[in-house]
Structures are given as structure tokens and as C-alpha cells.
Write a structure and sequence with these properties.
Blueprint (H helix, E strand, L loop, with lengths): L1 H13 L29 H29 L9 H7 L5 H6 L6 H8 L8 H8 L7 H10 L5 H11 L14 H11 L2 H12 L14 H9 L7 H8 L1 H13 L3 H4 L4 H6 L2 H8 L3 H15 L17 H12 L4 E3 L4 E3 L6
Antiparallel strand pairs: 1-2
Helix pairs in contact: 2-5, 5-6, 7-9, 12-13, 13-17, 16-17
Length: 347
């Protein structure tokens, strides 16, 4: 059952596809506007290399599905060890290898997405862009929707990749999802759209504050750097200063390993995280630091891990909501850290 919960969570986190676009609004310190023609500056050699990795990522996805099936089949899965199944269905972790390139790979991905000859890898490229801090993706996503290149259901999942969904606002109703995004972009900046949806997310009523336990790490951690009841940087710096420094170095590259590599939770449960780290990072120090970071954030087994995503501490959601509303008037987006910062944080 735990494995299926992880699979469903990974699907809900990975189905959406967000490209960049919307140059307006408060972009925060450290942000620089993209250069004209930035989407076309990739050399043919770079482009071919990334296309090859995208094709490999599609193969990896199929192999990962076979792994999951082999390990969960109720008739014979009990007899299969993770090590054996992983050897039988090898993956190259191509998607993750592109994600960890951060902002450097964004122009190449955009060039590929806009190339009509490469439609087979467009979706995979968009999926990777969703994990990178490219501030223009909502406008591009809107363009794709208005051109009829995606369905309302596709759009709903794509927005769910970025924003809390399952609320009563318009973009969750398929008949109005296109209009909702189009209207939002006409009236608000990127930052204002994110905060507007977070406002509704933190207004939801329900048991223990009404927040979804399965999504707190995707939204509160990604946009606010918050755990259930504290600042993640402070918590991580005390827990492991070297891991905190690794995460910050990767944020400066343009991605957050704590959230962007979340699907590797499956590897954690299978005891196969080392395999992924070797494929993704060339530096042994980065492998060690990222492994510890992912285990701290996503493992249910480590005694020193964050409070379980699926079992928040008593009152945790209420504390998170109280913090949000106390800080809401002061939240500003920091393009260097890829999240909103509050008045409590000194930069």
C-alpha cells in the first residue's frame, strides 16, 4: 500500500507540464530578464545531446513502470528483490540528469519545444522545465492551451504541477480552466498568481487546518521553504550544515533537489538511491549530500527525518497556516532562491 501511495503521489507531481513565459511582476533579487532569442542560442551539438537524453528519459519512464509492476504484482512480486528488478529494467535517470543542469539547460529545452520536428520529445522537455525556475512558463502554457495543443485535463494537471489544486477556484473545472489562466495572466504578474492560489490554499477549512498532507512538501517547501512548523533552512542547517550548503548551491544553479528529485522516493523505499546518485552526479560529495537530503525530506524510516509527509505532527497544518497569514503582507519572490521570502529572513 505504501508503494502505491508513493506511485500516486509521484504521478500527481509529474503529470503536469509547464513552460515559461510572463516577464512581468516582482521577479525578486538575482533575476535577470532573458536575452532576446534566448530560446534559439543552443548549438546543434547541445541540442542533439539534450534530445538524445529526452529520448532516453522516455525509455526510462517505461522501464520505471515495469519496475513498479514487478515489485507490486500480488502474485509474484513478493519473490522479487529490488536489486534484481532494477537490474532487469535498468534506467539511465536521463530526466534527473537534465534537471540538475538547472538554468543552463533552459534555453536548449525551449529551443526543442518550439521545434516542430521534435514533437515526440516536447512533453518530456516541458516536464523538465516544470522543475526549473523559468519565470515565463505560465504565459507559454496559456499559449499552448489557446492554440488547442492541450486538452483542459492536460491543462489542469499542468497547473497542478505548479499550484495547489483540488480547490473550488475556476482552473479546477475543466470547462473553465483555459479561461481561468488566460484571465489570471491578463490581470496579474506571475508572483501574484502564485500567491493568489496559495491564499486560497491556506484558507481551506478542515480537520487540523484542512491542508493536504501529501502536498505540503510540494507547495509549502517549494514556494515558502517551510516544513509543518518551521523554516526548512534553519532546520536543515542544524541537522546537517554540509547538506544545507549543497542545497543552496543547487538552488543557485536553478533547481531545488529537495522537491525536483522527489520521484526518487521510490528508490529510497527500495534501498536503491545510490544507483540514482551515481547516474545523476559526477562528484562523490554531491552524491552523498543529495542522498542525505532526499532521505531527510522524503524517508519515512529515518528517525531524524522531517515529520512524515503522510502523518503531519499534531497541529502542524494549523501552525503552517498561521505562519503564512502572519507573513503574507511581506512575502516577496526571490529569483535567486526560487521561492518567496518573508520579513523573518535576512538577505
Amino acid at each position: 500500500m505504501a508503494r502505491w501511495n508513493i506511485l500516486l503521489a509521484a504521478i500527481s507531481f509529474s503529470v503536469g507540464l509547464l513552460v515559461s513565459c510572463a516577464e512581468t511582476g516582482n521577479n525578486g533579487p538575482g533575476w535577470k530578464p532573458p536575452q532576446a532569442g534566448a530560446a534559439s542560442i543552443a548549438s546543434e551539438k547541445e541540442k542533439k545531446e539534450v534530445v538524445d537524453l529526452l529520448k532516453q528519459a522516455l525509455k526510462d519512464s517505461k522501464a520505471a513502470d515495469r519496475r513498479m509492476s514487478a515489485l507490486t504484482n500480488h502474485l509474484w512480486g513478493w519473490a522479487r528483490t529490488p536489486q534484481g528488478v532494477y537490474r532487469q529494467y535498468p534506467v539511465a535517470y536521463a530526466k534527473e540528469r537534465l534537471i540538475v543542469r538547472g538554468s543552463d539547460v533552459v534555453p536548449v529545452l525551449l529551443d526543442i519545444i518550439r521545434d516542430p520536428k521534435l514533437t515526440k520529445v516536447h512533453w518530456c522537455a516541458l516536464d523538465i522545465l516544470a522543475e526549473l525556475d523559468t519565470p515565463l512558463y505560465l504565459t507559454e502554457l496559456n499559449k499552448v492551451g489557446q492554440e488547442g495543443r492541450v486538452t483542459a485535463e492536460d491543462m489542469r494537471w499542468a497547473l497542478g504541477r505548479l499550484l495547489p489544486y483540488g480547490l473550488s477556484i475556476g482552473y479546477n473545472r475543466e470547462a473553465t480552466v483555459m479561461d481561468w489562466l488566460n484571465t489570471q495572466l491578463a490581470q496579474k504578474s506571475f508572483d501574484e498568481i502564485i500567491l493568489g492560489v496559495l491564499d486560497e490554499y491556506f484558507t481551506v477549512k478542515g480537520q487540523d487546518g484542512g491542508l493536504s498532507a501529501i502536498t505540503y512538501d510540494m507547495y509549502a517547501l517549494r514556494w515558502l521553504n517551510r516544513t509543518w512548523d518551521g523554516d526548512f533552512d534553519v532546520w536543515l542547517s542544524i541537522k546537517s550544515p554540509s547538506v544545507a550548503e549543497f542545497r543552496r548551491s543547487q538552488l543557485l544553479k536553478g533547481y531545488d533537489p529537495a522537491t525536483a528529485l522527489r520521484p526518487l522516493r521510490v528508490n529510497i523505499d527500495d534501498g536503491m538511491l545510490d544507483e540514482a546518485m551515481v547516474a545523476i552526479y559526477s562528484d562523490p560529495k554531491d552524491r552523498k549530500a543529495c542522498k542525505e537530503l532526499l532521505e531527510i525530506v522524503h524517508s519515512d524510516e529515518r528517525p531524524d527525518a522531517l515529520p512524515s509527509i503522510r502523518k503531519p505532527p499534531p497541529g502542524g497544518a494549523i501552525k503552517l497556516k498561521d505562519w503564512y497569514w502572519n507573513q503574507r503582507p511581506y512575502l516577496k519572490y526571490d529569483r535567486t532562491l526560487h521561492r518567496f521570502v518573508s520579513k523573518e529572513e535576512v538577505r
